Amino acid sequence: MIVVVDYGVDSLAAVVRAVAAAGHPATLSSDPDVVRKADRVIVPGVGNYGRAAVTLRVSGLGDAVREVAGAGRPLLGICLGQQLFFAESEEAPGATGLAILPGRVVRFQTTLHLPHVGWAQVLPTAAGRAHAVTGSLLGSDGSYYYHVHSYHPTDLPEACVLATADYDGVFPTIVGEGSVLGTQFHPEKSQDAGIDFFRRFAEWTP
Amino acid sequence: MLARRIIPCLGLADGRLLSGKHAAGVRDAGDPVELGVRYDSEGADELVLLDITASWSPESATLAAVRRLAEAIFIPFGVGGSIGSVGDAAAVLGAGADKVIVNTAAVRDPDLVSQLVETFGSQAVVIAVDGRLTNGRWAVTVNHGRDATGLEALGWIAELEDRGAGEILLTSVDRDGTRSGYDLPLIAAAAGAIDIPIVAWGGAGSYAHFAEVLEAGAAGAVAASLFHLPGYTVRDAHEYLRGRGLVVRR
Question: Using a CB-CB distance cutoff of 8 angstroms, which residues of chain B are in contact with residue A116?
Answer without folding.
Answer: 2
